[in-house]
Write a structure and sequence with these properties.
This protein has 297 residues and is of the alpha+beta class. The chain has two domains: 168 residues, no CATH class; 122 residues. 47% of the residues lie in helices and 18% in strands. The strands form three sheets. Strands 3-4-5-1-6-7 form a six-stranded antiparallel β-sheet. The longest helix has 22 residues. The two termini are 39 Å apart. The mean pLDDT is 89.
Length: 297
């Protein structure tokens, strides 16, 4: 029976092994905890169904060199010793490349839903380990990695349980029966590959419409429907609901200017606060992130 190691390098990603404050631990306990975490980063942290996240190893670097033919080298296929990878072992009987790739992309989605920061992981390498060790194939998602001044993704150890919960929900979701949610997640993911901030705004608003219009044809009242529905979903009180409704109404006005070729003023002013377009889109993305998580419940 053939066995394969499948790895997916994570671009722009780190795990933070730092302890803040005393945490009520003695110095010896702190040293032991840091050593334990250091070992976990090397051996791998279990996420779900045999998927681990760990530091790139020297073995990984050598394995990727064992393919008999030159590899294509899009940016998302680069790998270095400073990176982390997702890892899963499979047998020949389990070897369904489309399914494995989907699982890896679900981890990326879960990371992006956990919190805002730039992380990519579209390339997957399949390494035969049960016979003559070699890289047998690879696949990659055609997701561009834009030049960005945004923050790198730093996962804290304390955030790992929350990440596992989100991943479990994503992996357990039957998207064939939740097509609107599937489209919203696809557009949310696609926005990460957009280098133009206006294009990101459009992707995010398509995702909002998928969630809250649920297949209904978009019309003149679509913006109001989305704004009211999202405010009802996320707002904890009247003040929060009014803030969300008003902000998304402003978003729709800006979005309409973009898609119809009209000018909009920047900075964008909402309730006496000024936003540049990047800040504006960042706040839109956060509302979408929280909405998707609600729909996953």
């Amino acid at each position: 029976m053939k066995e394969y190691k499948v790895i997916c390098p994570l671009i722009n990603f780190q795990i933070q092994n730092v302890l803040f404050g005393s945490m009520g631990l003695s110095q010896e306990e702190i040293v032991n905890l840091r050593e334990k975490r250091k070992n976990e980063l090397v051996k791998g942290i279990d996420l779900l169904d045999g998927i681990k996240i760990r530091r790139v190893s020297g073995e990984d670097m050598e394995d990727i060199k064992t393919h008999p033919f030159p590899l294509p080298t899009p940016p998302q296929m680069s790998i270095s010793r400073s990176m982390f990878v997702l890892e899963k072992y499979i047998t020949e009987e389990e070897e369904n490349r489309l399914e494995i790739h989907r699982i890896m992309l679900n981890v990326i989605l879960a990371l992006r839903l956990l919190k805002k920061a730039n992380v990519w992981g579209g390339s997957v390498f399949y390494i035969l380990v049960s016979e003559k060790r070699r890289l047998t194939s690879m696949s990659w998602e055609e997701e561009p990695i834009p030049e960005s001044d945004g923050p790198g993704y730093v996962l804290k150890f304390d955030e790992i349980p929350a990440l596992k919960k989100i991943l479990e929900k994503v992996q357990g979701m039957d998207f064939t029966k939740r097509k609107s949610l599937h489209l919203a997640c696809k557009r949310f993911q696609r926005a990460y590959g957009e280098s133009d901030v206006e294009d990101r705004l459009i992707d995010l608003m398509i995702a909002f419409e998928a969630l809250f219009l649920r297949g209904e044809k978009a019309g003149a009242s679509s913006g109001q429907i989305v704004a009211v529905a999202c405010s009802a979903l996320l707002g904890k009180n009247d003040e929060e609901r009014e803030e969300i409704r008003g902000f998304l109404t402003k978003v729709y006005s800006t979005r309409n200017c973009i898609v119809h070729g009209s000018e909009y003023k920047e900075p964008i002013i909402y309730k006496n606060k000024e936003y540049n377009m990047s800040e504006f889109v960042s706040k839109i993305e956060e509302y979408l992130r929280e909405s998707i998580k609600k729909f996953l419940d």
